[in-house]
Amino acid sequence: PGIVLVAINPYEQLPIYEQDVIYAYSGQNMGDMDPHIFAVAEEAYKQMARDEKNQSIIVSGESGAGKTVSAKYAMRFFATVGGSASETNIEAKVLASSPIMEAIGNAKTTRNDNSSRFGKYIQIGFDKRYHIIGANMRTYLLEKSRVVFQAEDERNYHIFYQLCASSSLPEFKDLGLSKCWHSPVRCW
Description:
- Pfam families: Myosin_head.
- One of its GO terms (molecular function) is microfilament motor activity.
- The chain is built from 7 helices and 4 strands; from the N terminus they run H-H-H-H-H-H-E-E-E-E-H.
- By secondary structure, the protein is α+β, with helices and mostly antiparallel strands.
- A two-stranded antiparallel ribbon has the order 1-2. Strands 3-4 form a two-stranded antiparallel sheet.
- A hairpin with a 7-residue loop joins strand 1 and strand 2.
């Protein structure tokens, strides 16, 4: 049994995630301030330091709910309170995805034009002073059925359309991409 926070993606930047808010939640006890992703991160950080045990934060929700953004805010909190934000820029390093990775794992859904179809498991390593010393992100592909079928008003993985559009380029000739035009899945 742990803490549950229900957050809603406002689809715009709000001033409730800035540096001064991180410092306001740092060192506070759960419940002393309004519910916030920083309160959850602070509780995990405190328990890690106090009990010297690994902690987990599970971020779950529907497509477009703001899971990736919430994970970024939690990492920003850890980097800031651990004194490593300026040294490592860990949030940017861990969550930076290459365009190829985005193309392979993202698709258009009815709720999000660039919905990540990857599940992400992020491990953040801390030293004895509780500064971030590294991170590892594992990904796994969700909804493999989207490869052969997509609901109305949705698109397949972006890579499918990019490959179809590139099929006539000379550097792609040897890949046999001309066959994708015969696919039962609509290209555009």
